[in-house]
């Protein structure tokens, strides 16, 4: 089952193993420039606010309720990264507009390893964007559906789904017991990278996710193999992304936070981050995603999210290793 607690998705598989718990956070971050350069990992500035879809059942479209899930408000052209944490290994599929962020292929409700279309929690502590090349992703950036900028529209030619889709499969219990049971406590403490490593202080329009600037990040090969995952126990969640205007219509509230600007990033002296896993093999990236056009346009005047155009040479830090959410019809 999936729960939403303090804007964090919590995946639990008690029928598989008592320790089978994983967590996913959507993290606010600086939007890096789309200028052809590869930037290090930008820091996080706290979680995005996420609410239950059913809390706004009277105002959301009926087809949203059919899909189930949760609502995440974002400013247009605002960037995010996805944090994965937990001591029990899981295979996690991440898509936007039902286009896989690792392969660029259409969504499926199972795992595939040729090519690998998932990441492994918590060998992969975070995902900042679409895997376009080995060692490079293009940042997740919010964009209005229907403008032709989202990955969904560039790949399929349609603006149908939007949002973010996540599905998790736990490791089979007998494999976990064979390899991890004795060292479970040590492994949980080791695999959960501390929060400070990447953190610092009318009509309802759907939002999608577009490819932004380039970030240096490796997506790691699955060392466990496809047979390690319990495909019968998968759970999924549809995250509906909305802009500030739609958020006000849904809730009567202003946006919870404002976007991060390059000036704030520099004034806070926030460093960039490099993450290394010397014992891991990086995936080659997706040919489909490599051909995508980046979100180069400026944000609208009503939704200003300053792009990091005047970034200082900040220091780099090297890192080593409330109720249930509904699962509807995607």
What does this structure look like?
The strands form two sheets. The chain has an 18-stranded mixed beta sheet that branches. Strand 18 (272-276), helix 7 (287-290) and strand 19 (316-320) form a beta-alpha-beta unit. It is an alpha+beta fold and 330 residues long. Helices cover 14% and strands 31% of the residues.
Summarize the structure.
With 330 residues, the chain is an alpha+beta fold.
Any idea what the radius of gyration is? 19 Å
Structure summary, number of beta strands: 20
The level of helicity is 10-25%
Our estimate of the beta-strand percent is: 25-35%
The count of helical stretches stands at: 7
Shape: globular
Largest sheet: 18 strands, mixed
Q: Could you give the distance between the termini?
A: 16 Å
Class based on secondary structure composition and strand pairing: alpha+beta
Low-confidence stretches: 189-196, 297-306
From the structure above, extract its key features.
18-stranded mixed sheet; 330 residues; two-stranded parallel ribbon; 14% helix; alpha+beta
SSE blueprint:
Layout lengths: L1 E4 L2 E5 L8 E9 L8 E2 L4 E4 L3 E2 L9 H6 L2 E4 L5 E7 L4 E7 L2 E2 L18 E3 L4 E2 L1 E5 L2 E9 L6 H6 L7 E7 L2 H8 L3 H8 L14 E11 L18 E8 L1 H8 L10 H6 L4 E5 L10 H4 L25 E5 L2 E2 L6
Parallel strand pairs: 4-16, 7-17, 18-19
Antiparallel strand pairs: 1-2, 1-20, 2-3, 3-5, 3-8, 6-7, 8-12, 8-14, 9-10, 9-11, 9-15, 13-14, 14-16, 15-17, 16-17
